[in-house]
Amino acid sequence: MTENNNQIPIRRPTVNVPDFVVKAASDVPQPKDNKYPSEVIPLPTKGWFYPETSPLASGEIEIKQMTAREEDLLANQELIKKGKVLDKLMESVVVNKSIRIEDILIPDKNAIFIAIRRLAYGDDYNVSVTCPNCGENNRVKINLAELSYKTFDFTTHPRGQNSFSFKLLTSGVTVTYKLLNQIDESSIDAELNQIKKISKENTAEVTTRMKYVLTSIDGNPDRAGVRRFVEEKLSARDSLALRRHMREHNPDVDMMFNFKCSGCDFERRIDVPLGASFLFPDLDA
Predict the structure, then answer these.
(1) For the whole model, what pTM was predicted?
(2) Is residue 12 part of a domain?
(3) What residues make up the domain containing 115?
(4) Least confident of 23-27, 33-37, 52-56, 228-232
(5) Closest Cα to residue 115, out of 14, 194, 41, 203?
(6) Residue 70: HSE in the Cβ half-sphere, 13 Å Cα cutoff
(7) In 3-state terms, the chain is what percent helix, strand and coil (to 5)?
(8) CA angle 190, 224, 232 (to 5 degrees)
(9) Percent of the chain at pLDDT above 70?
(10) Is residue 81 in a domain?
C-alpha cells in the first residue's frame, strides 16, 4: 500500500524542560489546567486564512480527550434542540479558551471533530451504508486513521486572507468566495428556517448558501448586489461548476472512503456517513 503523506497526524503537545533539569519522562510536570491528556491537531487550512493575531494562525490546535462529562453534554436535549450541542462539545475540549469556536473555519472544524472521535473511541467507525446501486444495507467498518487532508497549494493565496476566485464558465463573471465559519452557518440556518415558515415547499438551500459563500461579483463586494446576482443571474450550469470547484480545490478533510457492496458488484469512493453513532458509538458495536 502506498503511504499517504496527507494522513491526519495527532501528536502529544511538547513540554519544554530546561536543559539543567534532568528528570525521568514521568516526572515532567504537566500544565496545571490540563486535568486530562491532550493532543495537538494540525489544521487542514494550516492557519493560512486567519488573521495573524488569531491563535488559529499557528496552523494547529490542542484538544483534550473527551470524557464522560462530554458524553453527558452530547445527550443534553436542550442543546440538541437549539442546534448548539456540537459547538458546546468543541468549546469543552479545546484547551486554549481564548479561541472563539465560532471563528473556526468549517474545514478545520471537520478535522477537529474527527480527532475528537478518534481520541475518544479509537479509529474504527462502524456504520450502516445503503448501496446506491442495489439498495443493500451494508455494515461497514471505516478506519478513520486513513482519512487525509486534501492537497492544496497555499502559495497561490495571500496569507491572512480568506478569499478565493473563480471565473464562471457561462457568464464569464469572476466571483470571489470564502471558507465559511460557524457564524456564517448559523446565519444560513436562520435564513433557511425563515424561508420554510413562509413556504415548506421552497427550501432554497443552494441559493441561500451561495449568498453567504460569495463575497464579490467582478470585484464588487456589495452584499445586496451579490444576493441579486445569485437570485437573478447565476445559471444552474455556473452554480454547479462553482460548487464542484469549491469542493475540489479548498483545503479540507477528504471524507471519502472505498465502499464495496456485499450484495452486488458496486464499488466506488463515497462520502463517510456521519450519523449519530459517529460521536455516540453503538454499545453493541
Answers:
(1) 0.83
(2) no
(3) 33-151+252-278
(4) 23-27
(5) 41
(6) 23
(7) 40, 20, 45
(8) 90
(9) 86
(10) yes
